[in-house]
Specification:
Length: 141
């Protein structure tokens, strides 16, 4: 899957926040995963080498989908000791996201930021403007 979009780290008083842009909800999920793990690890030279993980999220709103998606990846990262930043495939509907992610073992990555404890709803905002989606996500560190 080709990931098209961008993200920027935002200043935040107590936590860490990012703004993510993409062409669609699937892109928002993919770029958000990379953004989240790039806050903790230097991914510039990271090569996904782990076995893939299947992801399925059922959600009533785009906000719920985004938080559940990232929370699953963060949780599995802790369990598997893998940073799941590479979305291999993704199928998104209004109420469901299904896909496969891969990553790199955290032992092979350089730690550059504090560990993320949780994905929050605080300050979460998803905007859609024609063919552009934008999300602001705050992480508890």
């Amino acid at each position: 899957m080709t990931m098209r979009g961008r993200f920027e780290v935002l200043d935040h008083t107590a936590d860490t926040a990012v703004r993510v842009e993409a062409a669609d909800m699937g892109g928002l999920l993919a770029v958000s995963a990379r953004a989240m793990f790039s806050l903790m690890f230097d991914l510039s030279a990271a090569v996904p080498s782990s076995p893939g993980r299947s992801v399925r999220v059922d959600a009533a709103t785009p906000e719920e989908m985004l938080v559940d998606w990232l929370s699953n990846l963060l949780s599995w990262s802790e369990i598997d000791r893998v940073a799941y930043f590479d979305v291999v495939s993704l199928d998104v509907t209004d109420t469901q996201a299904r896909g496969e992610v891969r990553g790199a073992p955290v032992e092979t990555l350089t730690l550059i930021g504090p560990p993320i404890k949780a994905v929050t709803y605080h300050g979460l905002e998803i905007l859609r403007d024609g063919s552009r989606w934008e999300a602001t996500i705050v992480f508890d560190v």
